[in-house]
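BUG: 3D viewer hangs when loading the predicted structure for this chain

Environment: internal workstation, default settings.
Expected: structure renders.
Actual: progress bar stalls at 90%.

Input used:
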Amino acid sequence: MGHPMVRSSILADFPACAARHGIAPLELLKAAGLPARCLTQPELLVRAGRVHRLLELAAARSAAPDFGLQMSRSRRLVGLGLVGALMRDEPTVREALRRFIATAHLNSSAIWLQLREEAGWALLQLHLDSDGQPVIRQATELALGGLVSVLRQLLPATWHPQEVHFAHGPAQPAAQAARFFGCSVRFDAEVDAILLRSQDLDHRVPLADGGLTRYAGLAALASLARQEAVTVNRVKQRILLQMMDGPCSATDVAASLGVDRRTLHRRLAREDSSFLAVYDTVRLELAKRHLRAGWLSMAQVAQTLNIDSPSAFSRWFKRHTGETPSRWRDQHRAAPGTR
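Structure tokens produced before the viewer hung:
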């Protein structure tokens, strides 16, 4: 099954951040299994899990628990390439965010986003594929911090989120993270997300023109979409998004990708996979994250995975891991500050 990949442009600020802390970027790249050329070839695709490991190594070596947040300070629309150009040319921040959600996979197939609006509030929720890494704190903070940095370029200078939520525990004082985001930061939350007011999304995007740049960008995007319409990682994203709203089916996932069910199965078979295999991969990763964090009961974990009962969940989990959920949780429960 394919691994989630990211473009090396995500590491554009890594050398400078590493240098500020007196650590050698090339040494860390090697330790994480990444080639040195990923610092000079921004379009190079690399394993997401190796980037996650690189960031955790950098935080440990530098004794900087906010290393990911530090990298996120300089995130800019231009660093998103085609995706950033398309966002800039949308008329409102809401449409820019929707464009980002629809096209984020062009830069990283490890990031999945969902925007929900209700009663005057908007929640921008992030899911980051761990690609098998046990801890992805730095990558998560880089992703959410980067989103806030990008939003600051689209909104008035005085803007700040209402709250930022992290599913992991705090490794630095909450006040330190609050200073970066300009708002309250909740750790050990149920999801990784940014909370903002819906009215913030009504703002016009500065310099938006919707002209030839956007036209050319959409043409390029259409070409890329035809090439990447159905891949294992795209299917994983769609499954996760549908699971947030309830039951998930191959028919619904296929429709969301613009193909029929038979085409979905045929494209997955080309990657030596199947819908059920991808579905179980997504559910297993979510199950492990919930068990490791430890804030949900077995019944609640089963419910989030659309499994009928705790006993059915236990049988399913043991079939895939060889261990019961409770035994796995006891062996892998996150220590405070590492979730």
